[in-house]
Design brief:
Blueprint lengths: L1 E9 L5 E2 L15 E9 L32 E2 L4 H7 L3 E2 L3 E6 L5 H12 L5 E5 L4 H11 L6 E5 L3 H11 L3 E5 L16 H18 L3 E6 L7 H6 L5 E7 L5 E9 L7 E7 L2 E4 L3 H6 L9 E8 L2 E13 L7 E4 L3 H15 L6 E7 L11 H13 L7 E3 L2 E2 L5 E2 L4 H10 L4 E5 L14 E5 L2 H7 L1
Parallel strand pairs: 6-10, 6-11, 7-8, 7-9, 9-10, 17-18, 19-22, 22-23
Antiparallel strand pairs: 1-2, 1-3, 4-5, 11-12, 12-13, 13-14, 15-16, 16-18, 20-21
Bound molecules: thymidine-5'-diphosphate and magnesium ion.
């Protein structure tokens, strides 16, 4: 049986009250509550909703029935290192976030690719940071003069999207998201709300118009300011441009990629005329290596799926302090303490009264335990003043018992060592399982402890 009940609804805000009030409790307006009759059916149980729900059974597909666009349209950027990180070029309609600290070279990289992309595609470069004249000056320095490159110095997100829809460029670059804003939205430029809503607006434009977009996002030293982090789940790919400003090397890393692997990195060098690709990072890292000097050792680090040579240097010298100094640049400080402790306890070397310094050349940072043995070998070499042969590579994780633990990607590292002309590689025996070493030009020595590794040197 149906029951009729009176409710009072506010004309202004829609608030529902059970009894009349002069003033709406929700919005505070006077004399806005109106009496309405609401029918409550007692026949239907309350839990059953009478609202009709959309039937989605037609929208559910078997995975094999979904049609696939086999050939995704990809634009090559002219920088093969960038294409590699993108997974083979820029996918049509995708949104790519390029993050990095201010001054690392994001604008330079994106302006540089305009020359190649501009050959056959129209590009709109939107900058909220620089005027068209400033961009032109930079473009001139980089040798970018494509006729298909259009500049727009603007920060109004809605106006930019409207311009994109009207002009229909084939590729859009937004530099940077922190300078974009939507009128009427709370918060200033760069605030979380503005960044998120602007990204959403650009994403809809990119998807609806099928125009690929690069969006620049600044990241601070910790890499986690509000901006780019809230964008990460909206965009299709996130690339991070890393490096130290006082060193010329830059590494481009994919953190997320819906169209490719995140294991790829691209290596660049910042020169006077912009960024140059580095095809052979190992050679770059080993350039100018001293020969016949004690305390130098070479390791092979994995940067994603790419092996790169790194030179580790150690200096062990008499300390002038009561507590000897331990300094590590490029490796974890605590790791150095552990390796020294193992060398003292398990191999009987003595570092008391001696300062120990470790430096990885080229500003590289080694986070892999696989390079422990190189650090230990460099320390040993400097301590005993015996140079390590310049054609030897050491790899292996050191356990507290003085044993060598297995490392991943042994085969790739061996092949890279061979390619770089090394003659001998010493690595944990357990890492050699399943690795074919008979057809190699390089001598592969499997060992199971640090002592055996040092004997093999
Ligand atoms: P930029 O692309 O403006 O950095 P971002 O957009 O990431 O903030 O690059 C800034 C630095 O790059 C600047 O400090 C100078 C240097 N640079 C060169 O060394 N050579 C060049 O040809 C260019 C254009 C910049
Ligand atoms: Mg910039």
């Amino acid at each position: 049986m149906a029951k009729v009940k009176s409710v009072f609804i506010c004309r202004e805000c829609g608030y529902e009250a059970t009894k009349w009030n002069g003033k709406c409790p929700a919005c505070g307006e006077w004399n806005t509550l109106e009496e309405t009759e609401s029918v409550v059916s007692s026949a239907a149980p309350k839990s059953k909703r009478s609202v009709s729900v959309k039937d989605l059974s037609d929208s559910i597909y078997g995975i094999n029935d979904v049609e696939m666009d086999k050939d995704e349209v990809r634009y090559e950027t002219g920088l093969s290192e960038l294409d590699r990180v993108l997974g083979g070029g820029l996918v049509k309609g995708s949104l790519v976030l390029l993050g990095g600290e201010p001054g690392i070279g994001k604008s330079t990289l994106l302006l540089q690719i305009c020359q190649f992309l501009g050959d056959g595609h129209t590009i709109l470069y939107v900058s909220g940071e620089e005027s068209a004249r400033q961009i032109k000056l930079r473009a001139h320095r980089l040798g970018v003069d494509s006729e298909n490159l259009y500049l727009l110095a603007q920060t109004d997100c809605e106006a930019i999207c409207a311009a994109i829809v009207k002009e229909r460029p084939e590729i859009v670059i937004i530099d940077s998201i922190q300078t974009m804003s939507i009128n009427g939205l709370t918060g200033t430029q760069g605030s979380i709300t503005q960044v998120r809503e602007c990204t959403n607006m650009f994403m809809h434009t990119a998807k609806n118009e099928e125009i690929p977009m690069f969006i620049v996002g600044h990241v601070n030293k910790d890499g986690n300011i509000a901006g780019p982090k809230v964008m990460e789940h909206i965009v299709d790919a996130v690339m991070v441009f890393e490096g130290q400003r006082n060193l010329p090397y830059r590494i481009l890393r994919a953190v997320k990629n819906r169209f490719g692997s995140t294991n790829e990195i691209g290596v660049f060098e910042m020169a006077g005329d912009g960024l140059r690709e580095v095809d052979n990072p190992s050679a770059m890292m080993l350039e100018g290596r001293p020969v016949g000097v004690s305390g130098c050792c070479v390791a092979c680090v994995m940067e994603g799926s790419r092996p790169i040579m790194a030179e580790v240097q150690a200096l062990v010298t008499k300390s002038g302090f009561s507590a000897p100094r331990r300094t590590a640049t490029g490796i974890d400080y605590n790791r150095l303490y552990i390796i020294i402790a193992v060398l003292e306890k398990r191999l009987g070397f003595f570092f008391g009264g001696l300062d120990a310094y470790i430096n990885v050349i080229g500003g590289m940072r080694i986070d892999e335990p696989a390079c422990d043995l190189s650090v230990a070998a460099a320390l040993w070499s400097s301590l005993t003043d015996k140079p390590i042969g310049e054609d030897v590579i050491h790899l292996g994780e050191i356990g507290l018992g003085g044993e060598l633990r297995s490392i991943p990607f042994a085969e790739q590292r061996i092949l890279e060592a061979q390619r770089m002309g090394f003659n001998k590689i010493i690595l944990p025996r357990s890492a050699l399982k399943g690795v074919r070493t008979d057809r190699l030009d390089i001598k592969v020595i499997g060992v199971s402890s640090i002592r055996q590794a040092f004997d093999a040197i």
